[in-house]
Design brief:
The chain is about 60% helix and about 0% strand. By secondary structure, the protein is mainly α. It has one domain. Helix 2 runs antiparallel to helix 3. The longest helix has 20 residues. The chain is elongated and about 70 Å long.
Length: about 110
């Protein structure tokens, strides 16, 4: 994953969470689930697991900032945030196979270029 792509998406998520700040947590969670799942589907290639995990972590941090801004007392504890993240953000998943498997085309004994 390119650093610029992840950083740009995180800025977009932070801006969107600022707009959706007072939406209920399930609505925010559903939005974030879709964002993270789409990111994983696009960048979920073998060997990219650490970057996907970092993206998920940073989305959780953006969500924490947005939830803390909802109240002057910001009662969002680390335990509660962890439960939200575990509940709403999908776990890291590699969606694409290794290139050897992806490009392994078998035909009926003939060239695949025909």
């Amino acid at each position: 994953m390119g650093a610029q792509a992840g950083e740009a998406k995180l800025r977009e998520v932070a801006t969107e969470l600022r707009i959706r700040m007072h939406d209920p947590v399930p609505v925010q969670g559903a939005y974030l689930r879709d964002v993270v799942n789409g990111h994983f589907r696009y960048y979920g290639v073998p060997g990219n697991g650490r970057q996907l995990s970092a993206f998920r972590h940073h989305v959780g941090r953006c969500w924490q900032v947005a939830l803390k801004r909802r109240s002057q007392t910001h009662r969002i504890t680390a335990e509660r945030l962890r439960r939200y993240v575990d509940r709403w953000l999908p776990p890291v998943r590699i969606y694409h196979p290794w290139p050897e498997k992806r490009y392994d085309v078998t035909t009926r004994g003939k060239s695949r270029m025909r």
